[in-house]
């Protein structure tokens, strides 16, 4: 039985820049609610043999029709055809003759896919938004239950691990996966075409490694920014005081991609604001700055921030970007260029020989340690990564399920892209021996050897110019000591988002959070009777735990009422 107006379930369906479409092939009803950019990339195709939907950005140069190319690759290699796609994407292929639906995504699961399937109900539901799946289940009269163990993990870490969601019956598809369903048996089969592992097999010397990094970096940046040019879009990019955003912006600028419109948002006296302006002024970038002083954006409809990414991550981590990104709506923007996960590739989470459990537990608030001890999922995560190492945890869990899932809020408005998303670059960096990645040394050496202009500005994280590894190590040491002294006298460190400072000076933040808590606490108590959410929220002084509790309560209301 068709569900009417299914695209209206999507968060984005009422936005001005959205394509809303729905169709049906036999008993398979499908549709999309996507931004109206890069229309030759995000596309649908249907004939008497196949239905294909591709959502995302494709960089394959030889492809004239992405869906038809996907069909060709599928017919040549049904199990691994997705390996041929270079880009950031999710989609599906419906083989009408075989009555098989194959859902696929990229190596970062940058476009989430949530799946419900039941052979007993002879039903498969999948969508890029969890709320779409849960609303369809409601219409079909299919019951849902809270995943209590996943909720415990969320309250500890601020995101959901593996394929978990707050809904037991609905799973998030893992990265680099083909999930196929037979519409005859409604059985599910999965196949992974890429995995993260650090084998340190690279045999080049340091000089050779740096040369290869440069070739991969320049190629990835050129490919990314050319996408704007090919579609006659203007260039827009986030710029901060970190290394990764300046790498993307300044290399693109050097390669001739001009003019570049840069966007910075932070506390007005933060190093991110100061350094980004210095970079923009010297390189004649069209720069805009949005000050976040006082954190008022946190109380400008926080429910909306949570709805945008289904409550899958702590809303404090995605709200700032979403509040600012609407500045460019209506302009001729293409990709939003960022430096996402660059530090991860070059060693920020490389910690050979370290105790993985203690490193993961550093992310857990003291007030939720008892939940961490109870959480079977968190204990599984710790056990799974004892041998794999913390760096692989950072890729597979922290980045993919945390950072990138937070970006989902912005994907309703713009396609986020980073040169560090490139699969070849990730594979190569995983093969670099750890000794070269300590203190991100190989990254700093590459900058100073091939692109010394990148080191003309301070690095916010270290407080010094990254002219050498020793200079950076000294800067890190001094900044940590300074922040420790600030903490001892009750002064919050200067940062892009000083949440602790904001809640002290802006009573509206806790006032709004308290209001939402009182509004939704009953649903929390009804659905989760073995976690005292009221005690967690009211007795903890940690602002992030309060944000996580509010995120959880709003998401429970979204998916269960």
Q: What do the pLDDT scores average to? A: 94
Count of β-strands:
16
Oligomer: single chain
Report how far the terminal alpha carbons are from each other: 23 Å
Give the spatial strand order of the biggest sheet: 3-4-5-6-10-11
Rg from alpha-carbon coordinates:
23 Å
Overall geometric form:
globular
Please report the number of helical segments.
21
Structural class: alpha/beta
* Low-pLDDT residue spans: none
Strand content: 15-25%
Helical amount = 40-55%
How would a textbook summarize the main sheet?
Answer: 6 strands, antiparallel
What does this structure look like?
The structure is a single chain. By secondary structure, this protein is of the alpha/beta class. The protein has 21 helices and 16 strands. β3 and β4 form a beta hairpin. α4 (206-230) packs antiparallel against α14 (423-430). The longest helix is centred in the middle third of the chain and has 25 residues, at 206-230.
Task: Give keywords.
561 residues; alpha/beta; five-stranded parallel beta sheet; globular
Lay out the secondary structure.
Layout: E1 18-25, E2 28-35, E3 43-46, E4 50-58, H1 66-76, E5 87-95, E6 100-105, E7 114-118, E8 123-127, H2 130-140, H3 148-157, E9 171-172, E10 177-182, E11 188-192, H4 206-230, E12 234-238, H5 243-254, E13 260-266, H6 271-282, E14 286-291, H7 302-308, H8 319-325, E15 333-337, H9 342-345, H10 356-361, H11 369-374, H12 376-388, H13 390-406, E16 415-417, H14 423-430, H15 434-437, H16 441-450, H17 469-488, H18 499-505, H19 507-527, H20 533-539, H21 543-560
Helix pairs in contact: 3-21, 4-14, 4-16, 12-13, 18-19, 19-21, 20-21
């Amino acid at each position: 039985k068709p569900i009417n107006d299914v695209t209206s379930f999507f968060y984005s369906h009422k936005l001005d820049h959205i394509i809303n479409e729905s169709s049906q092939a036999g008993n398979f009803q499908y549709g999309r609610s996507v931004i109206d950019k890069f229309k030759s990339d995000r596309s649908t195709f249907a004939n008497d043999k196949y239905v294909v939907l591709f959502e995302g950005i494709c960089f394959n140069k030889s492809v004239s029709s992405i869906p038809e190319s996907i069909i060709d690759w599928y017919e040549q290699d049904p199990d691994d055809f997705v390996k041929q796609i270079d880009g950031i994407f999710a989609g599906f292929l419906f083989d009408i003759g075989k009555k098989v639906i194959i859902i696929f995504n990229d190596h970062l699961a940058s476009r989430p896919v949530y799946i419900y399937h039941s052979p007993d109900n002879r039903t498969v539901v999948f969508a890029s938004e969890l709320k779409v799946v849960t609303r369809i289940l409601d219409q079909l009269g299919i019951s849902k239950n809270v995943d209590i163990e996943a909720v415990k993990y969320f309250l500890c870490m601020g995101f959901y691990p593996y394929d978990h969601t707050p809904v037991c019956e609905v799973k998030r598809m893992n990265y680099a996966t083909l999930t196929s369903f037979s519409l005859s048996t409604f059985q599910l089969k999965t196949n992974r075409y890429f995995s993260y592992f650090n084998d340190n097999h690279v045999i080049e010397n340091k000089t050779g490694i740096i040369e290869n990094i440069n070739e991969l970096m320049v190629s990835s940046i050129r490919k990314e920014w050319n996408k704007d040019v090919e579609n006659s879009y203007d260039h827009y990019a986030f710029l901060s005081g970190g290394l990764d955003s300046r790498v993307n912006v300044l290399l693109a600028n050097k390669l001739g991609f001009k003019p570049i419109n840069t966007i910075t948002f932070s506390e007005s006296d933060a190093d991110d604001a100061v350094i980004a302006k210095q970079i923009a002024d010297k390189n004649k970038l069209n720069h805009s700055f949005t000050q976040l002083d006082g954190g008022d954006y946190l109380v400008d409809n926080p429910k909306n921030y949570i709805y945008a990414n289904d409550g899958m991550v702590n809303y404090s981590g995605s709200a700032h970007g979403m509040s600012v990104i609407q500045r460019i709506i209506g302009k001729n923007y293409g990709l939003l260029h960022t430096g996402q996960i660059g530090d991860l590739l070059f060693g920020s989470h490389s910690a050979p020989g370290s105790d993985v459990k203690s490193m993961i537990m550093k992310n857990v608030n003291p007030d939720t340690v008892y939940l961490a001890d109870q959480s079977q999922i968190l204990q599984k995560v710790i056990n799974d990564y004892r041998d794999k190492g913390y760096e692989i945890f950072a890729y597979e869990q922290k980045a993919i399920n945390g950072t990138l899932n937070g970006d989902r809020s912005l994907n309703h408005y713009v396609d986020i892209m980073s040169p560090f998303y490139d699969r070849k670059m990730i594979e190569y960096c995983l093969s670099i021996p750890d000794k070269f990645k300590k203190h991100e040394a190989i990254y700093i050496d590459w900058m100073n050897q091939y692109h010394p202009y990148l080191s003309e500005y301070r690095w916010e994280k270290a407080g010094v110019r990254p002219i050498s590894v020793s200079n950076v190590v000294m800067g890190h040491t001094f900044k940590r000591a300074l922040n420790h002294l600030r903490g001892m006298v009750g002064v919050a460190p200067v940062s892009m988002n000083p949440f602790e400072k904001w809640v002290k000076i802006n009573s509206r933040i806790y006032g709004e959070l308290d209001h939402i808590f009182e509004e939704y606490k009953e649903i929390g108590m009804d659905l989760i009777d073995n976690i005292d959410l009221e005690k967690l929220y009211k007795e903890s002084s940690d602002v992030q735990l309060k944000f996580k509790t509010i995120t959880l309560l709003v998401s429970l209301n979204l998916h269960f009422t």
